[in-house]
Design brief:
The protein is of the alpha+beta class and about 325 residues long. It has helices at about 5-15, 55-70, 80, 155-160, 165-185, 190-195, 195-210, 230-270, 275-290, 300-315, and strands at about 45, 45-50, 80-85, 90-95, 100, 110, 115-125, 125-135, 145-155, 215-225. It has 4 domains: about 45-125, no CATH class; about 130-225, Band 7 domain (Tetrahydropterin Synthase, Chain A), CATH 3.30.479.30; about 230-270; about 270-320, no CATH class. The strands form 4 sheets. The chain has a 3-stranded antiparallel β-sheet. The protein has a 3-stranded antiparallel β-sheet with strand order 8-9-10. The longest helix is centred in the last third of the chain and has 43 residues, at about 230-270. It is rod-shaped, with a radius of gyration of 48 Å. One of its GO terms (cellular component) is plasma membrane.
Length: about 325
C-alpha cells in the first residue's frame, strides 16, 4: 500500500496524535457535574451570598419547574407567591438555600417562587426579658443574689437569621453570664450604691457581644440585690451601732457646750455683785411661784459675801497666765 499519496498524507495530518485524542465514552470529566463553590468575596452587608453564582443543573431544573407550576396554576398561585410583611417586620428570603441579594424585604408585599424560595420573618420591635436571679460572688467575697431586666431589638435582620441559630435564646444566656462577670468585679458597697453605673457597663458589654448577631441591646436595669440573712443582720447591727455612736458624740458635744456656757455665766455673775443679787431674787421668785408646802427663809447676801469673794479669788488664781 502506498502511503505517500496526497489523500493519505492529508488524513495523516488531520488525525490527532494518539496521546491527545479524547474519547467521549471514556472521558470521565465530560460526565462529572461540577458544583461551583461559594465565593467568599461575594458579600452583602458583611454577609456571604452566592445567589449570583452559576447554578447547577438541579437548581436550574427546580427553578424552571417552579415557574411552570406557577404559570399553570395562575391565578391561584398569586395567593401563594405574594407575601405581606408588616411595618414592624422584615423578611429574609432564600432561594434554593442561597441568600438572595437585595437585603431584607418589607414592609409591604414581596414575591416568592413556590417550592423554591423560603423566607423568615423577623420582628424589629423592642423585646424585654428578665434575667433569672444569679448568685454572684463579689470582689470582697460576699455572695449576693442579683436579677435584672434587658431590653433589646433587631438592628440587622440578615445577621439575626444567618449568624446565629436562635438570637433570643443566645441573648438570654449571654445576659446571665455577663451579669455574673460584671458584678464579680465590684465590691458589695458598689453593688448597693452604683447600680446605674453597673447597668451601663452591662449594656455596653452586651451590645458589643451581640452586634455580630444583628442584636442591639438598648437598656439593662438591675432589679434587686438580695443579701444573705446573716449578712443583713450584721449590717443592721453595724448601722445601729453607728447611729448610737453618733448620738453619744452629739450628746457629749451638747454637754460640753452647755458646761462652757454655764462656766461663762458663772464668771460673769461672780464678777458682778448686782447680777448675783438679781439671780438670787429670780430664784426666790421661781420657788415661790410653785405651789408647794415648803417654807423658805431667805438668807441675806451679806452673810454669803465672804464665801463669794473667796471663790472668786480662787478662780482667778487658777486662770492661765
Amino acid at each position: 500500500m502506498n502511503t505517500s499519496s496526497p489523500r493519505l498524507q492529508n488524513r495523516a495530518r488531520i488525525a490527532p496524535a494518539p496521546d491527545t485524542m479524547r474519547f467521549p465514552s471514556t472521558d470521565i470529566r465530560q460526565h462529572t457535574i461540577i458544583i461551583p463553590p461559594t465565593e467568599p468575596n461575594r458579600t452583602y452587608q458583611g454577609l456571604k451570598t452566592s445567589e449570583n453564582d452559576d447554578m447547577n443543573c438541579v437548581e436550574i431544573l427546580a427553578t424552571t419547574l417552579s415557574i411552570i407550576l406557577m404559570v399553570l396554576t395562575f391565578p391561584i398561585s398569586v395567593f401563594i407567591c405574594f407575601k405581606v410583611v408588616s411595618e414592624y417586620e422584615r423578611a429574609v428570603i432564600f432561594r434554593m438555600g442561597r441568600l438572595r441579594s437585595g437585603g431584607a424585604r418589607g414592609p409591604g408585599v414581596f414575591f416568592v417562587l413556590p417550592c423554591v424560595d423560603d423566607y423568615c420573618k423577623v420582628d424589629l420591635r423592642t423585646v424585654s426579658f428578665d434575667v433569672p436571679p444569679q448568685e454572684v460572688l463579689s470582689k470582697d467575697s460576699v455572695t449576693v443574689t442579683v436579677d435584672a431586666v434587658v431590653y433589646y431589638r433587631i438592628s440587622d435582620p440578615l445577621k439575626s437569621v444567618i449568624q446565629v441559630s436562635n438570637y433570643s435564646h443566645s441573648t438570654r444566656l449571654l445576659a446571665a453570664t455577663t451579669l455574673r462577670n460584671v458584678l464579680g468585679t465590684r465590691n458589695l458597697s458598689e453593688l448597693l450604691t452604683e447600680r446605674e453605673t453597673i447597668s451601663h457597663t452591662m449594656q455596653m458589654s452586651l451590645d458589643e457581644a451581640t452586634d455580630p448577631w444583628g442584636v442591639k441591646v438598648e437598656r439593662v436595669e438591675i432589679k434587686d440585690v438580695s443579701l444573705p440573712t446573716a449578712l443583713q443582720r450584721a449590717m443592721a447591727a453595724e448601722a445601729e451601732a453607728a447611729r448610737e455612736a453618733r448620738a453619744k458624740v452629739i450628746a457629749a458635744e451638747g454637754e460640753m457646750k452647755s458646761s462652757r456656757a454655764l462656766k461663762e455665766a458663772s464668771e460673769i455673775i461672780s464678777s458682778s455683785p448686782s447680777a448675783l443679787q438679781l439671780r438670787y431674787l429670780q430664784t426666790l421668785v421661781n420657788i415661790s411661784a410653785e405651789k408647794n408646802s415648803t417654807i423658805i427663809f431667805p438668807l441675806p447676801m451679806e452673810l454669803l459675801s465672804p464665801f463669794i469673794s473667796a471663790g472668786h479669788n480662787h478662780c482667778n488664781s487658777h486662770k492661765p497666765q
